[in-house]
Design a protein that fits this description.
By secondary structure, the chain is of the alpha/beta class. The chain has twelve helices and 14 strands. Bound molecules: pyridoxal-5'-phosphate.
């Protein structure tokens, strides 16, 4: 086998993530590598931290980045917040909330699911009822934008209910951050995590997290130490805050340059403007899907993630073949269904850098060509 440098075809990434990366971010990634304790790097970390506070809409001091994908953020929030034997209410109507349950159980927590139909927002009444039946629950966990189904839950409401029942909140804002409204402080989300490759339009591999003061106190007063070395907040804060920083792990410095640039781009646009842009482009895409193909999201209006639509595959269409043809003939990637929805839906993302009219036009014309064949 002969080897040569790798040059992938350019793809339009309109699935559930990764989304395309802003060229400014790609340039930032290629800057000279520096050490993870270089004073310049510490300055960059501090800048990332404040940019992230703006993005999360929080003043939480414990706001930083983990070197790993969104799933690492999920594991970090849960492993810090939950002690073995703790009862955790997990609202689930999709694949990613089910992953939360798996992690809770691995940690030794007792997961009590609040089950919702796939493709619907979590019904706040169901959470309320479950909390009434489980007065010893300590944590409520939910997903804001359930990427597997396209449903967006009202986590402001869910969080209010959880706090009224003396639960702290762990919230997944992996797909929402940067693209849909997220208000960590106002909504009292105690531990939140996200990723770099969806709404933030950066490369994958970094997980922004934020912990409220109450969450930090809770973690510090645990009886059983955090059962993870890498994710222990108490150790991570030694690297991310204070006058003197100490080595925790070798942060992938180039990746962090990219994240910094992505957050800066978002700040330049204005986060509220970014939320609006995602909403408007989604509305345009929904109209065109309906007009040109009579295709509709499976999620009812009012419960949809603006920038990630799950569309029912029309009868008699080989959905995998269409996806494959879109990829090989149009360099266009869209997502398949996951879990219960495997084979039943296409997931179409208009996230971050891709949320614009040009992408909608490209997608519609490519889909038209492929659907005509079937
Ligand atoms: C993508 C996603 C994750 C996992 O993120 P990775 O970066 O793939 O590990 C978790 N939760 C939700 C809602 C997601 O969409």
């Amino acid at each position: 086998m002969s080897h040569k440098s790798f040059h992938p075809h350019h793809r339009i990434l309109m699935g559930p993530g990764p989304s395309n990366v802003n060229p400014r971010v790609l340039t930032a990634l290629s800057h000279a590598t520096i050490g993870h304790l270089d004073p310049q790097f510490i300055e960059l970390m501090d800048s990332i931290k404040t940019l992230l506070q703006d993005t999360f809409k929080t003043e939480n001091e414990a706001t930083f980045v983990l070197s790993g994908p969104g799933s690492l953020g999920m594991e970090a929030c849960l492993v810090n917040m939950i002690e073995p034997g703790d009862k955790v209410i997990v609202c689930t109507g999709g694949y990613f909330a089910n992953r939360m349950i798996q992690i809770v159980e691995k940690i030794g927590g007792i997961a009590v699911p609040v089950k919702e139909n796939w493709g619907r927002a979590i019904d706040p009444q169901k959470l309320e009822d479950t909390l009434k039946e489980n007065k010893d629950a300590k944590i409520a966990a939910f997903v804001h934008a359930e990427t597997s189904t396209g449903a967006l839950s009202n986590i402001k409401e869910l969080s209010k209910i959880a706090h009224a029942h003396n639960c702290m909140v762990v919230a997944d804002v992996v797909t929402s951050l940067g693209a849909a409204e997220v208000q960590v402080d106002e909504w009292q989300l105690d531990a939140v995590y996200s990723c770099s490759q969806k709404g933030l339009a950066c490369v994958a591999g970094m997980a922004p997290v934020s912990f409220s003061e109450k969450a930090v106190d809770h973690i510090k007063s645990r009886k059983i130490p955090v059962q993870s070395w890498f994710n222990d907040l108490n150790l991570l804060t030694g690297y991310w805050s204070g006058q003197k920083r100490s080595y925790h792990h070798t942060a992938p410095s180039n990746q962090y340059y990219g994240l910094h640039e992505a957050l800066l781009i978002l700040k330049e646009e204005g986060i509220e403007n970014a939320w609006r842009r995602h909403k408007e482009n989604s509305a345009k895409l929904i109209l065109r899907l309906k007009d040109e193909f009579n295709l509709e999201p499976i999620v009812p209006a009012g419960e949809r993630i603006p920038h990630l639509l799950a569309i029912k595959v029309p009868e008699g269409i080989d959905e995998a073949q269409v996806r494959s043809d879109l990829l090989t003939k149009h360099n266009l990637e869209i997502g398949a269904g996951l879990g219960e929805l495997a084979g039943k839906v296409w997931r179409i993302g208009l996230m971050g850098y891709n949320s614009n009219e040009k992408m909608i036009d490209y997608f519609i014309s490519a889909l038209k060509k492929e659907l005509h064949k079937h």
